[in-house]
């Protein structure tokens, strides 16, 4: 009797726990779908070819976001071009060259972790003072990219480091035991094995660059024209959306904001899907 | 003729005195087996012979390892040394690339680009490792897709491709089934004609079957070494006798 009751209780506990876990998962998915649906249902109707490729005008119906898309692409490309080589090389130094647990490793790790914890607006303030004013780069794509490069550097270092550490020690031993040099072993054996992780870290950083607003407009400005060089100011999509939400007076402005948000969401979803695709494809090899 | 000579070697992992005053000659073109219980230092000694211990932080080594009259810790470039003293590991560790690329890896690292040369070496090495017939039709398929025994023979082929003089084997069959083990042992019997082989093994039967010389280690000391038949049939030291008769270990 007693044992039967205990089993019954345990079964009930199991069911309760399962229900709790299931609801938590369901709520997560529901929120995500809700936000996406909310943006798409309000914005998709206003996304047209003219909207994507048109120039921005403050007044009138025929306004577009082409300049913002170009600025965003510039910003992503340049900040990655600055941060990715530095970040990857730092990670290689940390995992392959520095003695594990040494002072240098601890110092660099402490620095990257602290950097990662600083609110992004602080980077913006620093970038505005240092890159824009002190270095005289002005409000420009370059100032913005340098600032964002600092912001994504910890992410790239950390994820690349993890990818490199996940490469089995036996590969390194095997490589060195054949008399191959350290550089060759890293370049032909360790980096290729870590590539899926490195690609993931770069795509995550891309998402971060696209998503930032405050540090971007503090350093790259908000000019709504296509930048002719990296020394021109430019407005990224996220900054544009931020700016639009500051002055939502007419229905047209609401529509523009939602349309911009739609483009952003689709972009981020595409990025995530690309990450998944690349990661699974590379893992097969 | 001794290929390698270990003279008064002491090795420390931090404060741990892992190898105590080891002196051991390793004769040319013979199989020398290093036996002893876990943690006795036999693998550590094997790894000093091609300086793999350099990869471990905090290792201190005193004494000499002479390789054909050169002190490997002073006179020889470590990359050159590892080409001449190859190593096969306990767990087969093929690289995540094709069978062909696995075998060609070491040569490519030396800058060999000539396709004809690489093709020849790959075929020769795979043949010497008794793997060619099994893989010749799928050289482009991944090395990690082979069975465990084939993977280990691939790793042996990869080592042979460098045309080494010595092959170090760290318990090369401990991760394999009896049939695959048998194949590797047969292979070693052929390899001994061309190479000097040093093998660490946990299996006393294996040491008996394949080795010419045996060295018995106990808690970082080299207790006794000599002809394999002598070590197993007339051991001098009581500890050797206890170990080879299966009383402990």
Please specify the SSE layout and strand pairing.
The complex is a heterodimer of chains A (285) and B (249).
Chain A: H1 2-43, H2 49-53, H3 66-97, H4 103-117, H5 120-134, H6 141-165, H7 169-177, H8 182-211, H9 214-220, H10 237-246, H11 251-283
Chain B: E1 2-13, E2 16-27, E3 31-35, H1 42-49, E4 59-67, E5 70-71, H2 78-84, E6 85-88, H3 99-109, H4 115-128, H5 132-135, H6 148-160, E7 166-170, H7 178-191, E8 196-200, H8 204-210, E9 213-218, E10 221-227, H9 228-233, H10 238-244
Parallel strand pairs in B: 3-8, 3-9, 6-7, 7-8
Antiparallel strand pairs in B: 1-2, 1-4, 4-5, 9-10
Helix pairs in contact in B: 3-4, 3-6, 4-6, 6-7
Total count of domains of chain B: 1
Helical amount of chain A: over 70%
Strand content of chain B: 25-35%
Listing every helix as H and every strand as E from the N terminus to the C terminus, the arrangement of chain B reads EEEHEEHEHHHHEHEHEEHH
- Identify low-pLDDT runs of chain B: none
Structural class of chain B: alpha/beta
Alpha plus pi helix count of chain A: 11
Rg of chain A, alpha carbons: 24 Å
**Distance between the amino and carboxyl termini of chain A:** 57 Å
């Amino acid at each position: 009797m007693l044992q039967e009751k205990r089993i019954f209780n345990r079964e009930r506990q199991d069911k309760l726990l399962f229900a709790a876990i299931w609801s938590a998962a369901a709520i997560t998915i529901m929120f995500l779908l809700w936000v996406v649906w909310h943006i798409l249902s309000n914005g998709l109707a206003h996304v047209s070819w003219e909207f994507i490729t048109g120039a921005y005008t403050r007044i009138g119906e025929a306004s577009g976001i082409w300049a913002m898309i170009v600025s965003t692409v510039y910003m992503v490309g340049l900040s990655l071009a600055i941060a990715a080589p530095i970040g990857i090389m730092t990670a290689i130094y940390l995992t392959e060259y520095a003695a594990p647990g040494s002072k240098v490793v601890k110092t660099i790790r402490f620095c990257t972790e602290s950097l990662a914890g600083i609110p992004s607006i602080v980077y913006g303030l620093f970038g505005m003072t240092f890159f824009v004013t002190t270095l005289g780069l002005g409000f420009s794509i370059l100032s913005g990219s340098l600032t964002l490069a600092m912001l994504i550097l910890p992410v790239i270092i950390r994820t690349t480091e993890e990818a490199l550490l996940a490469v089995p020690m036996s590969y390194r031993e095997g490589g060195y035991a054949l008399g191959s040099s350290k550089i060759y072993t890293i370049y032909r054996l360790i980096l290729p094995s870590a590539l899926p992780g490195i690609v993931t870290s770069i795509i995550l950083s891309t998402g971060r660059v696209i998503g930032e607003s405050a540090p971007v407009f503090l350093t790259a400005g908000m000019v709504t024209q296509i930048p002719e060089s990296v020394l021109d100011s430019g407005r990224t999509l996220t900054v544009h959306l931020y700016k639009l939400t500051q002055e939502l007076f007419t229905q047209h402005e609401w529509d523009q904001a939602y349309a911009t948000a739609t483009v952003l969401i689709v972009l981020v979803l595409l990025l995530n899907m690309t990450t998944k695709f690349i990661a699974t494809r590379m893992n097969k090899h | 003729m001794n290929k390698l000579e270990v003279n008064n070697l002491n090795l420390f992992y931090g404060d741990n005195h892992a190898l105590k005053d080891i002196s051991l000659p390793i004769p040319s073109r013979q199989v020398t087996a290093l036996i002893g219980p876990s943690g006795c230092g036999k693998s550590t000694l094997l790894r000093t012979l091609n300086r793999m211990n350099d990869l471990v932080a905090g290792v201190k080594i005193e004494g000499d390892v002479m390789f054909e009259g050169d002190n490997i810790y002073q006179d020889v470039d470590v990359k050159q040394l590892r080409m001449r003293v190859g190593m096969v590991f306990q767990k087969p560790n093929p690289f995540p690339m094709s069978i062909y690329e696995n075998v060609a890896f070491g040569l490519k690292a030396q800058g060999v680009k000539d396709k004809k040369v690489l093709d020849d070496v790959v075929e020769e090495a795979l043949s010497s490792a008794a793997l060619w017939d099994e893989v010749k039709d799928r050289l482009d398929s991944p090395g990690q897709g082979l069975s465990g025994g084939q993977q280990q023979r691939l790793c042996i082929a990869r080592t042979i491709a460098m045309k080494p003089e010595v092959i170090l084997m760290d318990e090369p069959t401990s991760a394999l089934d009896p049939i695959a083990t048998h194949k590797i042992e047969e292979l070693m019997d052929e390899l001994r004609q061309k190479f000097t082989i040093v093998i660490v093994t946990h299996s006393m039967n294996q040491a008996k079957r394949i080795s010419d010389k045996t060295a018995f280690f106990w808690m970082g000391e080299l207790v006794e070494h000599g002809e394999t038949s002598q070590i197993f049939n007339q051991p001098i030291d009581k500890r050797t006798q206890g170990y080879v008769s299966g009383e402990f270990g």
